[in-house]
């Protein structure tokens, strides 16, 4: 077997294995990426790369290493899920950085976080004055959560004693010219109703629709693949 053929087979095999393992770990890695999860992801990727291009190595031990790293990661996730003390050891705890508008320099030093880094993350949350912050914490994934002081929070309808209507998630009925029949059935609708709604908005064919969403108010939003409208001048000119 030539080197190119072997690389092709190894790459295909490692891709399938990596896809399977990452499907098992993906929700954990993406939704709450801690530093240790990051290391696990890099290690698994490195092992998969070695399985592909290291033609002199036996693929068996590398496959075993991939399997063991996946099992270890799942085991730690199980411990974190079931045992609070274990979760504290594995994932750590949030660290208080600002309390009542005062920066806790000692905690900044423990995290090796500079004032510039802190201010940058505050600005990303549209906070430019430390005195406007009631609490700020560094989460276990490295992100900062901020609670502004009550007088600096945006006004909500509840603050004004205003009643609001329920707003649920819209339902996609057409995506890229294809009807999502399952969503139609879940809303007790049929294809004929959908076509009638399209004709009411002067749309002759489902294939013309890029996206159609049904709001909780019963209104159908339609975006066509070819929108005929006159472009406006660039507002930045």
UniProtKB/TrEMBL annotation:
The keyword Electron transport does not apply. InterPro entries: DUF421, UPF0702_alpha/beta_dom_sf. GO terms for cellular component: plasma membrane. It is found in: Cell membrane. This is YetF C-terminal domain-containing protein. It comes from Anoxybacter fermentans. Gene3D superfamilies: bsu07140 like domains. The keyword Membrane applies. It is a multi-pass membrane protein. Belongs to the UPF0702 family. The chain crosses the membrane at residues 7-26, 33-53, 59-81. It holds the Pfam family DUF421. Its main location: membrane. Residues 82-201 form the YetF C-terminal domain. Keywords: Cell membrane, Membrane, Transmembrane, Transmembrane helix.
């Amino acid at each position: 077997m030539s080197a190119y053929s072997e690389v092709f087979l190894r790459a295909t095999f490692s891709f399938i294995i990596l896809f399977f393992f990452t499907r098992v770990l993906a929700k954990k890695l993406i939704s709450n990426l801690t530093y240790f999860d990051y290391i696990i992801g890099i290690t698994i990727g490195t092992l998969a790369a070695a399985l592909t291009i290291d033609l002199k190595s036996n693929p068996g031990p590398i496959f075993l290493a991939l399997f063991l790293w996946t099992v270890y990661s799942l085991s730690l996730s199980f411990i974190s899920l079931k045992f609070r003390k274990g979760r504290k050891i594995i994932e750590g705890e949030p660290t208080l950085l600002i309390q009542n508008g005062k920066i806790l320099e000692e905690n900044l030093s423990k995290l090796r976080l500079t004032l510039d880094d802190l201010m940058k993350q505050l600005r990303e949350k549209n906070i430019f004055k430390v005195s406007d912050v009631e609490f700020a914490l560094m989460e276990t994934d490295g992100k900062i959560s901020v609670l502004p002081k009550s007088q600096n929070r945006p006004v909500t309808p509840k603050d004004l004693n205003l009643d609001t209507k329920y707003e649920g998630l819209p339902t996609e009925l057409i995506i890229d010219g294809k009807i999502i029949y399952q969503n139609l059935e879940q809303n007790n609708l049929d294809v004929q109703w959908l076509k009638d709604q399209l004709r009411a908005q002067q749309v002759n064919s489902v294939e013309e629709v890029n996206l159609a969403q049904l709001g909780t108010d019963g209104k159908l939003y339609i975006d066509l693949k070819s929108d005929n409208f006159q472009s406006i001048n660039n507002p930045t000119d």
